[in-house]
Amino acid sequence: MSIASILAKLSLSAIGAVAMVATIASASQAGTLTIGAKRDTTIYQNNNNSNGTGVGIFVGNNGSNATRRSLIYFDIASNLPTGASITDVQLTLFLGQVSGSSGNPGSGDQTPRNISLFRASNSWGEGTSGPVPPSGTIGGTGEGFAPNPGDATWSDRFYDPVNPVLWGTPGGDFAANKSATTTVSQNINAGYTWVSTAAMVADVQGWLDNPSENFGWLLLHSWHLPIWCDRSKYFLQLMLIAYHPSKTKFSFGNCIICIYLPT
Predict the structure, then answer these.
(1) What is the pTM of this model?
(2) What's the CA gap between 41 and 53, in Å, rounded?
């Protein structure tokens, strides 16, 4: 993964260390932590493909009104101290493409779309489906790729040609209530943030306290409308978490925020 300060100019070729950044936000040992996604994938309604190794994830409907949803997982328990109290959570993704644009800024779907996070309620896999040879661009990956064993698809949590593990409901198993929504416009390479909500905080706190119940978030277009609204995002995402080790009240303070960029 690559890392750069949020104050730096966005670059798609920045190279750096893998990472997690922690800063102290107050004298009482409260802290902030920025971590990248451990795995992510896209599931496709129209062809049951997947995209485990692609450089982007897709959310919304394409020009043929075929739905795409994305899954994203953060390893919370390995990065936060046991017993920490989560006080603030933010998720930021960077827009790589809009439907019909072929990656060209200013073209394609120009209508801002609401994209929502829902807590996934079942485990899923990120296999090895993706472009061969590997590609550093999003273009040409919007239809996904034939799944390999272990990939999540529209019908399967873990694809297997003989014994697949199915979703309870095709399209993914997730909570009835959304955790957050943000509006994603057409500004290519811009970062879009799902600001902290009580539901996001509860999700991450639950994943810390009960790691076996951490299945990440599912992203979907809020209204499932049959419209041209596909939004693809770079797959190296960040989550900013504010926490206090002693479970006492903490007021979120200033911190250094870092962003992960595609290599």
Answers:
(1) 0.77
(2) 8
